[in-house]
Design a protein that fits this description.
The complex is a heterodimer. Chain A has 4 helices and 3 strands; from the N terminus they run αβααββα. By secondary structure, chain A is an alpha+beta fold. In chain B, a hairpin with a 3-residue loop joins strand 7 and strand 8. Classes of the chains: A alpha+beta, B alpha+beta.
């Protein structure tokens, strides 16, 4: 069954949202993610463009500046909540791992 | 040496994988895509270029945009930033190219990619569903008509051509839609697991259908030209001009308005209006022209003064020159039907008349259908022109030189001089004003079975 939109985030959704914690121009996201992940995560241009559009539609980011075709966005409350929920989910995963491999469950 | 090449590329609208591979294949042969036009894909000769193509879908693009929208330009800026050059677009489909081996793919997230293709596919899907509905409607008519009038449909190359075209449209639309929804389901499931799903086109099916339609269409034109019927040639020529002019006018209007920077909405409204007005206006003009030509007697040679294979005067001695002869021929690969009426100009001139239909069966499997159709029309009493309650009863076929012969009879009533004669390759139905002699039957046989 397909996931409900943005209930969980793919790796690229996560990093793009993360980049918008501070006001950021869409096109600068490529460099920002590259720097942040030391090249471990690459976002395709189509993926980035479409996700920005979808995040805007979902109210997870908002446009703060338009300079010609350069548009800057920033995370909204809803976007922050989505990120927080995703982090919680990831932490739960890590916790489950820790229980099995580093904690009481470890053999 | 030609530096450009135009190709008709049968594509499946969502098959980005197939289109990318095809473009890369063409590039390997030294041809780079330049643009997509209504008359095919235009390639330019290039040397020493290697690279990758990427086909994506931009949902807000339109064929009616005078220039790329701001969003599209921004999209292209994004792709340029990652090393992809915009090549061309057709509707929502956007084609990019890169020579940079390290350029990351345009789509790196399968979930987003699937949703993006689905959004871009909406316009295509609307068109395909509309065409499917038209195809089903016309396909159903094409299938149901032979049930009521098998000879009328199978003997007409125009009917067969349109039937094949509508069936082809139905098959194409159905296969595209089924293929798309199957791919979408699989792609969404795979995307959940972080996997991309390649698209599968049906270029082979499209090419096959295109060839079949082309051959059938050519057959229709050739058979019409050789039919010798001026009204059929006129109709065929009019329809070809009608379609060509309509397509040219619609594309011309759209492109002219794009050059004039008219907005997408107004371009769409004006082009559709022009399309609508021309479609009905031109059809009205053709009908009016046909009526004018018919009234002026331009088509009389098809019917009134046509030479007929069997004339009343071949059977009886008549001193009368005022006969009206009507001779209608329809022919296809399967059947050829000739309807002949020979009547005096004025009712009550006291001269005999003659009426017959010769159905030449070119496809042997249709013989029984043709024979049964002729016989059942009387048994069911469905014929308007002929009396009710009569049935064909076997008579001696030898004098007619036929394999089987039947006469129309009714209980307690004098039989009619209407005969059904079954020859090896044709079925003849003949209506006489008198009871024929053996000699006249022989003449009918000789004259009507001449090929």
């Amino acid at each position: 069954m397909p996931r409900e939109k943005f209930q969980t985030l793919t790796e690229q959704m996560f990093y793009i949202l993360l980049c918008f914690r501070d006001e950021c121009c869409g096109i600068d996201i490529f460099d920002k993610i590259n720097t942040m992940t030391h090249g471990a995560v690459t976002v395709g241009s189509g993926t980035l463009y479409n996700l920005i559009e979808q995040f805007l539609d979902a109210g997870m980011i908002r446009e703060v500046r338009v300079d010609g075709r350069r548009r800057s966005y920033i995370l909204t409350q809803k976007g922050e909540e989505t990120l927080a929920r995703e982090v919680k989910r990831l932490r739960a995963r890590v916790a489950h791992y820790d229980v099995l491999f580093n904690g009481e469950g470890a053999r | 040496m030609k530096n450009t090449k135009r190709r008709l590329e049968p594509i499946t609208f969502y098959d980005h994988t197939g289109i990318e591979r095809r473009l890369e294949k063409m590039l390997a042969k030294g041809w780079m895509l330049e643009r997509i036009t209504a008359l095919g894909w235009l390639y330019r000769r290039v040397e020493g270029i290697t690279g990758r193509f990427a086909v994506t879908y931009y949902h807000d693009a339109s064929e009616f945009d005078p220039a790329p929208t701001e969003g599209q330009q921004q999209y292209q800026e994004y792709t340029a930033r990652t090393g992809w050059r915009f090549v061309c677009a057709s509707g929502q489909m956007q084609i990019f190219f890169t020579e940079n081996e390290d350029a990351p793919p345009i789509e790196t997230d399968p979930v987003t990619q699937v949703e993006n293709i689905c959004r871009g596919a909406k316009t295509y899907l609307r068109t395909y569903f509309l065409l499917l509905a038209i195809g089903i409607l016309n396909g159903a008519l094409f299938i149901s008509r032979p049930l009521g009038d098998p000879i009328g449909v199978l003997a007409s190359s125009a009917n067969l051509t349109s039937g094949v075209c509508w069936t082809a449209l139905l098959i194409l639309c159905a296969s595209e839609l089924v293929g798309y929804y199957r791919w979408r389901g699989e792609a969404r499931r795979n995307a959940e697991r972080g996997e991309f799903t390649e698209t599968r086109g049906n270029a082979r099916l499209q090419l096959t259908v295109l060839i079949v339609v082309g051959v059938v269409f050519a057959y229709w034109i050739v058979s019409t030209l050789f039919s010798g019927s001026s009204i059929l040639i006129y109709a065929c020529f009019s329809m070809i001009c009608y379609m060509a002019f309509l397509l040219a006018a619609v594309h011309g209007t759209k492109n002219f308005l794009k050059r004039k920077n008219v907005s997408r909405r107004w371009n769409l409204v004006i082009t559709l209006t022009v399309d609508f007005v021309l479609a009905f206006g031109l059809m009205g003009l053709i009908v009016w022209g046909t009526m004018q030509l018919s009234n002026s007697g331009a088509f009389d040679k098809d019917t009134k003064s046509a030479s007929i294979p069997l004339d009343v005067k071949d059977l009886v001695s008549v001193d009368y020159d005022g006969y009206i002869r009507e001779n209608r021929v329809s022919e296809s690969l399967f059947l050829a039907v000739r309807d002949v009426y020979q009547r005096p100009q004025k009712h009550g001139d006291g001269v005999p008349s003659l009426e017959y239909t010769v159905t030449v069966v070119k496809a042997p499997f249709l013989y029984d259908i043709c024979k049964r159709d002729r016989m059942e029309k009387y048994e069911a009493g469905s014929s308007v022109r002929r009396p009710r309650g009569y049935v064909y009863q076997p008579i001696d076929a030898a004098p007619w030189g036929a394999d089987e012969a039947y006469r129309l009879v009714r209980e307690k009533v004098q039989p009619l001089d209407i005969y059904l004669l079954c020859y090896e390759e044709c079925v003849v139905e003949i209506l006489l004003d008198w009871e024929p002699t053996a000699e006249q039957m022989q003449t009918v046989y000789e004259k009507l079975t001449e090929r």
